[in-house]
Amino acid sequence: MKLYNMKEWDGMKEQKIAVIGFGIWGKNIVRNFYNLNVLEMVCDLDDESLKTVQEQFPGVKVTKDFNDIIRDASITGVAVVTPSHTHFKIVKSMLEAGKNVYVEKPISTVAEEARVLTELAESKGLVLMVDHLLLYHPAVNRLKMLIEEGVLGEPVYAQSDRLNVNYHKNDRSVMWDLAPHDLSMIAYVTGKNPVKVISAIGCSSDKNNIMDITHIGIEFEGGMIAHISDSWITPQKHVTLLVRGTKATAIFDDTAPTDKLKVYDNFKPANTQNYALDYLEIEPLKLACQHFVNCCASGQKARSDGANGYAVVSVLEEAEKIMMGSKLEELNKKDFALSRMKV
Questions:
Q1: What is this structure's pTM?
Q2: Do 101 and 45 touch, CB atoms closer than 8 A?
Q3: How many domains in the chain?
Q4: Of 6, 85, 171, 192, which has the fewest CB atoms closer than 10 Å, so is most exposed?
Q5: d(Cα 286, Cα 243) in Å, to the nearest integer?
Q6: Cβ distance 324 to 334 under 8 Å?
């Protein structure tokens, strides 16, 4: 956990953050920014949601019009926690208004839109941070350190499985909902960039265009192969990342109550290597929100910046083309129509 000097801490206290969207994930974002004493305003279209904000977070302003955030010059940063098809319009509006932006993943479902937003933020000297949450997970960062120290040897294979039940299925597909976590995490811990999609399949258990099970194969720099599996229909939650190196294999199990990260010798059966895997058990979202506030105060780029978001979207866009084929044009038309609706 980073310790801030007095100047940095004063800069953090001067930040005022607004949150757009008080849904399932938005509630967690609001809670964390409120606990950091920087939450100024919450925007949502639902009256009951705004009433809940006023009851649970005293002193926080509420509005149904995100233009109120734009007009408030005291607000320095905005967290956009809305459906993915609305991200481009809202994020672009906030950046044009001179606000730093923290956006729920994915930054967009269109690579060109992600590129435009990234370049806009850079041209204005603003922070654009994507909620690739696992880049802030203490265990994931411990795994990255082990790889950098050579404990695993050269990474040759990675496998990320993110399986759970989602009764709402309110995103474009399970791939866009969950794979940004997997892809950004694999690239981050291994230090390797994705090169190309080598396979992509998916299916819809409801027999419609919304894929609720997807499997993607990706080649990374140096020939490393990664497989990513995501599901919205698995009753028993399963969230793991396996990274195999030339010397050892690490498994990060985020559903385990303790000992989330283990390392196994490749050449000794059932032998866990005796490495110190201690790390601070801090909520990753708290660390991510704190990182955003500090970036707003210091002007530094976020770990999961716009370029990081663009790289992820580019790969997933390629995977979706392979996965859906001719059905993709129909889905794009639907998303375009939704994006034209009033937010």
A1: 0.88
A2: no
A3: 2
A4: 6
A5: 26
A6: no
